[in-house]
Predict the structure.
Amino acid sequence: MNKLLSWPAALCWLTVLLDGYDLVVLGAVIPTLIDENHIGFTAASATFAATISLVGVAIGAAGVGPLADRYGRRRVLLASIALFSVFTIAVPWAGSVGVFGAFRLLAGLGLGACMPTALTFMAEHMPPTRRAFASTFTMTGYHAGAVLASLLALWLVPDWEILFYAGGVAGLLLLPLMWRKLPESDAYLQARDKTERVKPTVVLQPRYLRTTLGVWVGSFMGLLLVYGLNTWLPKLMRDAGYNMSTSLTLLLVLNIGAIIGLVVAGILADRRGTKPIILVWFAAAAVLLALLSVKVSGTVALNALVLVTGIFVFSAQVLVYAYVTQAYPAEVRATALGLTAAVGRLGAIFGPSITGALIVSGSAHPWGFYFFAAVAALGLIALATVPRLARHDDPPAEPARTGRDDLKEYAT
């Protein structure tokens, strides 16, 4: 518990908070941008803006792993936050949809690098017996940021520009604190010599291939859900007949549920094993997303359904990251997590794009929720194929030479 109250834990949590804030901020302002036809925004161009943002995030996540494994977690994290902050502040100054998208793309490069680096650092900051909780606890910052963005949107919209200024300035204010208080990861320092000899493609070697493919597909499906819902839930609920205030409130409730789910999922995963909890969480998410297609008349019942959906949908994705931090050695951990996040960000691109296409065609409700339920089911199937890790065990640093050696690490 003392490690969770330390400066490194707090700074990693705040870093991930910026990611969560940015996740919701565009979805919260899209209805206003479209209604006001700001610099020519339509439903189609809003889909472009959401998509191009996530392209940048995916590129940033894919590229950061080898850099963090080679040059250290600390320097890469500082540079990533700086890049995100500068171009987030620039977004309201965009004079066209194209420039708006370019600023979001560049901010996304920095943002995409932040989360996998912060999660890698936290996994190495905590003992192996607490690694699942380290990941889920850190990711509560993600949804705290989403809740913060939702609250500010309820207060500030239609003055949407302030939301972007606030996110960028917060990042710039975080930098000097991180410079003084964030040390380099001990695990990175110990594995630094090995890192120089290890190629990123090690995650595709036979020993890890089954794990890598499973977590990549699971991450793709998980982030498709997270971004699809956070980007378009207000619009989906408006199409379902709810008013704008109710729709934004449900986005807030969804992310409060996510915070609750992350705490519970991390505790259970450390006690029962990460893989079994992942499967339960994806299965519950599939059922609850399908239920959201049903029009609920009572406010309390509607909020309760959305809250429970948030508990399972978002923490299912984070449990994939927790699994990755346990499945790979320190010298390739950031690479493995960065690539998993990058593949997930591709799902994040498809989520808003497909949902946006359904909205443009006028068929988002109820088919949007049926689509999300099917995605959760596919995530369940993918994660069912990965090995069950031996609990509380770090995998050996050197690749196993035989199938019998693999069994020493993984419980089948």
